[in-house]
Amino acid sequence: MSAQNQNPEALGPPKGVGPMQRREMWLAYLMLAPTFAIILMIVAGPLLANFWISVKPVQLADLRPPTVLVNERVRGGPEAAGDSAELEYRLRNSSQEEEVRDVVLTDAIPAGFNVSVLPDVCALNGSALTCTIGTVEPGWRERLKIEGTVTDAFLAANRPERASKPVIAGDANNILTSFDFTLDNFRRIFSAEEFWSVLRITFYYTIFGTGGALVLGLFAAQLLNTVFKGRGIVRGLFLFPYVSPVIAVAFTWVVLFDPFSGTVNALLTKMGVVSDPINFFGQRAIEYSLFGIPMEFPLALTTVIAFEAWRYFPLSFLFILARMQSINTDMYEAAEMDGATPLQQFWYLSLPQLMGILSVLFLLRFIWTFNKFDDIFLLTGGNAGTRTLTVDVYEQGFALSNLGAGAAVAVVVFVVLVTFATLFIRFSPKEEGL
Fold first, then answer.
1. pLDDT at 409
2. In the prediction, which pLDDT does 29 show?
3. Measured by CB atoms within 10 angstroms of the end CB, which terminus of the chain is less buried, N or C?
4. Bridge partners of 164?
């Protein structure tokens, strides 16, 4: 019996990766390595930097490492050759908390300035000045005064001391680059009672803003899925909120809803709906009673959510309309012949076919709305119960100059969104047939 008959598998295709395929695979990886590296730096670089700052007690002033600042000037007001003058260096430690070690000042003595007295820490080699200062304490200030006389060359020059810029060398601890880490930023934000209120407001704003944009987009797509005269013009008008600059539409809403001169309040007052103007963007809540239970309606937050839904529904509208127009119309004709109402056709035929695109849109809009900052900041500045996590990042990092706490809040935003996206992709509904 031949070897081929003894081993039938030898007649089949080869299994595994051969040497040639392995070399081609590694060559492809090497060719794509620069692209992967660039993408990694663009995407992961800022993210890793944010994680790094979140575990450090970094203030806004810590972005510049501690150093000794120097200012050089000539004092004494010499007017003629041979007059006495003083070359003064004003030095100070830029940090109030960190010392600077091995501080050395180097400079060139201006031409025409004859040195007569040097400070003890300074030495002169020709015109080269070297001052070995050593370690300076936080908040340290000092003046080095070099006495001498001037010549005509010095007097003829325009600010001769500026011909050479003094150079300071020194070593100091840098909070940003050190390997000292702390969880104080996270302890501070989690222990603050307002953080949980801000987190709740963020979810409220995100869920209702996203849902409102999807519902309006679905309604608009259903409306424009039929053929009528002027449909193209209506589609263009529906895109206006999304393509307009956010600063323009936000300012328009603020003007329209202004409690003193706004059009909306004027109409409501004239129609007798309200007796006094309503501060839509400045009033935190309206108190009311439901079955004897006192409750509050978040007015400013609801108004901001309405703006969010109005501004971003065109994106949902475009995607949903495109999906609607790709659905086969035969089943609608069959359903209509069987006596199905338009509502039944939408619920049992259209909606199952749209679940895939609705899920994708909800995920994208949830992430974008959760990260939204400019809309709320332009409308309310985060006041009147509209402060979200992204506004809190700005407040902590820049208003309070606590970059570490701001980065910690940003890390919380990242973790929440990654968790939500993972769970949503795992359990989100799919279109029929997928």
1. 95
2. 83
3. N
4. none
Below-70 pLDDT ranges, the chain: 1-17, 429-434
Beta-carbon-side half-sphere exposure of residue 58 (alpha carbons within 13 Å): 29
The pLDDT assigned to 434 comes to: 45
In this prediction the pTM is: 0.78
Residue 432 CB: number of other CB atoms within 10 A? 11
Q: What is the pLDDT of residue 91?
A: 95
Residue 161: the pLDDT is 87
pLDDT of 92 reads 95
- pLDDT value at residue 162: 87
pLDDT (0 to 100) of residue 95: 87
